[in-house]
């Protein structure tokens, strides 16, 4: 049998099979076109994910179609064997990771209504559950907390493994990728809270049991639970499910945005009543009222935890059965997701720290993928690296071979468009040191069926092998710090804007590489030190977590950028929601504006080195770029606003920027004891201001022209944002070798100026020819 593992190779995790390292890329594809599979193999692809179902879900059947023709629907195992035989006939030395669906069959769901998501009236919501290899009309969505489902699916998984282990090509199977929920990505296809129907859940016995166990783990005693919730009726055995009104903060922007849209014309619309500052006791602006409604956040935390625990459950079955097979799953979407109903955001560390999973995966977000843009990721991949695990990007990168709809939506019209974006996305994988597979979603296969793409893949295999032979220890200087525990304390749009759209719009345009962590890792001894920390959404921090953050900042005299409301929520404080909680963290006195206001500000001290690249008279504090979806074809950004707003009210702080409309300080810097605190009171700080801070902190900038830059110690990649001359400044003297053109762009240089078209992608090796 083959032996596969995720192992540290030259300083970073890698997939290793029988002692040989396999750098990115892998492939997920249909197997209807043997010649296509052969060409992919000839291009160097060796690791293939095969999508299939258990025989429990698809036992196979014979039937007669509407024309009286006898037909056969293959079982899950039959379909797998057929696809595997096609693959191995064309690529005999291919390795297989089984992408296995764990969905229950429809008749099981009909027979087990207590295992389905249940609403307050006892009902279930019929829906369509589909993956790439199945589609069913279901009576309701099964709960990931269901022990009965886990037992039945675990039995089906065991039987599938038994059958695979008896196959003549069993030695080519190196792992399993666990799939469940909508599109295999572990989200329920029904909303937990359906506001349109005034239905909310989950009241299923399966989830209520899981919820109670979650609360026992979090609070220990019911006395502590009641004190935290301020509810005498709080209990572990009958935990409170928040109703629609109690979840108001999740969608509170709707009233604000309605006012922004109709403010001018409201008095001319019959029945129109606008209150831009509408309030309810359940929220303080975009924040959940954590003083009195903490159980709303706990409820959603428990839902996401239940999904994570289900993944750990199945992974543990496989790890107990096998030595030498890798196990992964989809989980952890901090972009292009519903942070509440999708249940796959806030328990990533539960899975990683279980030690049962080798990798987690997610597609890149679907915004701004066309040439000149970037495919932002959904996870905090460097938290994976610390634990010796891999984040795997599902690179469902489109090409000009799509249908007319997606060719236009993605801006991919010809071969050049495909090649430059495939180069860009591969460079991100290699420079950020993650793993990935190309994903051909075409029903018959063919997304990459083109001579130039085959040649590109073959060259990328060579580049990847060269890259993995080098020192892969990261030495980046900027770290973005996220907080999964804060997600359920703020509105859905606040999460989307800060964790998703911002990552798409600005964070790859700083001109320097960025590493991504959960704040929990700041207290780890093995987490590297950085010169600049960007504290993205650290709204909810305990006393111990605050001290860990500050100790890390003091360790090497770092510059720390705080956004919006850092530490505003402190469950250990006498006043859980208080400005003082922010002040004690950032070292500046702040004021609060408890109404809807504008976040826009201008830089008022253009001479300060911390704002070196600021643009005079540009309005900051919001995303002012075009951010649009390439799939759902909409501009996703809402008008800019804050509610509440914050400002700096501290004579000891150096004011760098002032709100345009409010006239109050919005952006400030203050030298602390051994570190530098920088506070941006709005939610967003544009790329050139972060670049300015990075240089102020002593970080190296490769580029200051708004281009997409991917870099590490061995490679620098530039993806041009416009036509014209573009400059790269290297960290030290080097001889940059363009890996696709196979030529040097100079010798012993520190700076390079190149004429480029929009979307051109150049990837330079700093370690010689490859």
Please characterize this protein's 3D structure:
The protein starts with a strand and ends in a 5-residue tail after the last strand. The longest helix is centred in the middle third of the chain and has 28 residues, at 294-321. The chain is globular, with a radius of gyration of 26 Å. 53% of the residues are buried. The mean pLDDT is 96. Strands 4-5-8-11-16-17-18-19 form an eight-stranded parallel barrel. Strands 21-20-22-23-29-28-27-25 form an eight-stranded mixed β-sheet. Helix content is 27%, strand content 22%. A hairpin with a 4-residue loop joins β12 and β13 (199-200). The protein is an alpha/beta fold and 770 residues long.
Query: Hey, roughly how much beta strand do the residues contain?
Result: 15-25%
* Low-confidence blocks of residues: none
Mean pLDDT: 96
Sheet of most strands: 8 strands, parallel, barrel
What order do the strands of the largest sheet run in, or round the barrel if closed? Answer: 4-5-8-11-16-17-18-19
Report how far apart the termini are: 33 Å
Total of DSSP H or I helical runs spanning 4+ residues: 17
Shape: globular
């Amino acid at each position: 049998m083959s032996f596969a593992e995720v192992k540290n190779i030259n300083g970073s995790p890698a997939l290793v099979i029988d002692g040989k390292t396999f750098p990115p890329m892998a492939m997920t594809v249909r197997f209807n076109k043997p010649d296509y599979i052969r060409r992919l193999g000839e291009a160097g692809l060796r690791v293939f994910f095969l999508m299939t179902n258990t025989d429990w879900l698809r036992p196979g059947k014979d039937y007669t179609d509407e024309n009286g023709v006898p037909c056969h629907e293959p079982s899950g195992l039959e379909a797998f064997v057929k696809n595997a035989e096609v693959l191995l006939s064309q690529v005999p030395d291919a390795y297989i990771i089984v992408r296995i669906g764990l969905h229950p069959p429809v008749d099981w769901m009909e027979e087990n209504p207590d295992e389905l998501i249940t609403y307050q009236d006892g009902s279930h919501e019929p829906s369509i559950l589909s993956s790439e290899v199945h589609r069913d009309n279901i009576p309701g969505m099964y709960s990931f907390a269901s022990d009965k489902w886990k037992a039945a699916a675990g039995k089906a998984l065991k039987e599938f493994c038994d059958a695979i282990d008896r196959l003549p090509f069993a030695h080519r199977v190196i792992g399993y990728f666990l799939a469940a929920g909508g599109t295999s990505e572990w989200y329920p296809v029904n909303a937990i809270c359906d506001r349109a129907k005034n239905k909310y859940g989950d009241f299923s016995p399966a989830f209520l049991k899981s919820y109670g166990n979650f609360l026992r783990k979090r609070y220990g005693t019911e006395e502590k639970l009641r004190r935290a919730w301020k509810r005498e009726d709080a209990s572990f055995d009958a935990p409170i499910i928040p109703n629609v009104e109690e979840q108001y903060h999740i969608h509170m922007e709707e009233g604000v945005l309605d006012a922004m849209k109709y403010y001018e014309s409201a008095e001319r619309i019959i029945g129109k009543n606008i209150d831009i500052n509408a309030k309810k006791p359940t929220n303080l602006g975009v924040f959940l009222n954590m003083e009195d409604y903490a159980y709303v956040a706990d409820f959603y935390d428990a839902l996401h935890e239940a999904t994570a625990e289900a993944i750990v459950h199945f992974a543990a079955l496989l790890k107990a059965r096998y030595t030498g097979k890798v196990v992964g799953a989809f989980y952890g979407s901090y972009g292009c997701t519903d942070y509440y109903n999708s249940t796959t955001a806030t328990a990533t560390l539960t899975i990683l720290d279980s030690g049962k999973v080798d990798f987690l995966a997610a597609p890149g977000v679907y915004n701004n993928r066309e040439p000149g843009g970037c495919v932002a990721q959904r996870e905090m991949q460097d938290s994976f690296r610390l634990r010796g695990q891999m984040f795997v990007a599902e690179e469902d990168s489109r090409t000009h071979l799509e249908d007319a709809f997606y060719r236009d939506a993605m801006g991919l019209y010809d071969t050049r468009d495909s090649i430059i974006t495939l180069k860009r996305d591969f460079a991100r994988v290699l420079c950020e040191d993650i793993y990935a597979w190309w994903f051909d979603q075409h029903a018959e296969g063919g997304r990459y069926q083109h001579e130039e793409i085959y040649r590109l893949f073959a060259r990328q295999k060579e580049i990847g092998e060269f890259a993995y032979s080098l020192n892969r220890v990261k030495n980046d200087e900027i770290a973005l710090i996220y907080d999964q525990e804060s997600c359920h304390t703020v509105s859905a749009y606040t999460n989307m804007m800060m964790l998703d759209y911002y990552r798409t719009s600005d964070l790859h345009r700083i001109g320097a590489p960025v590493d991504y962590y959960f704040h929990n890792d700041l207290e780890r001894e093995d987490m590297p030190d950085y010169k600049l920390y960007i504290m993205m959404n650290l709204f909810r921090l305990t006393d111990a977590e605050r001290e860990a953050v500050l100790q890390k900042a003091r360790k090497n005299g770092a510059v720390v950028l705080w956004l919006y409301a850092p530490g505003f929520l402190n469950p250990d404080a006498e006043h859980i929601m208080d400005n003082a909680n922010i002040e004690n963290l950032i070292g500046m006195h702040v004021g609060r504006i408890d109404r809807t206001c504008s976040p826009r500000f201008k830089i008022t001290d253009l001479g300060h080195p911390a704002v070196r690249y600021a643009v005079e008279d540009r309005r900051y504090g919001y995303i002012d770029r075009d951010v649009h979806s390439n799939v759902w074809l909409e501009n996703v950004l809402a008008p800019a606003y804050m509610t509440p707003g914050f400002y700096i009210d501290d004579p000891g702080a150096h004011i760098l920027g002032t709100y345009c409309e409010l006239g109050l300080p919005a952006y400030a810097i203050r030298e602390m004891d051994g570190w530098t605190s920088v506070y941006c009171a709005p939610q967003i700080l544009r790329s050139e201001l972060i670049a300015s801070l990075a240089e102020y902190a002593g970080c190296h900038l490769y580029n200051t022209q708004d281009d997409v830059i991917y870099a590490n110690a061995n490679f620098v990649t530039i993806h041009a944002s416009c036509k014209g001359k573009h400059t790269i400044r290297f960290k030290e003297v080097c001889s940059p070798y363009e890996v696709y053109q196979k030529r040097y762009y100079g010798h012993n240089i520190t700076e390079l100026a190149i004429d480029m078209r929009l979307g051109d992608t150049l990837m330079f090796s700093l370690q010689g020819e490859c």
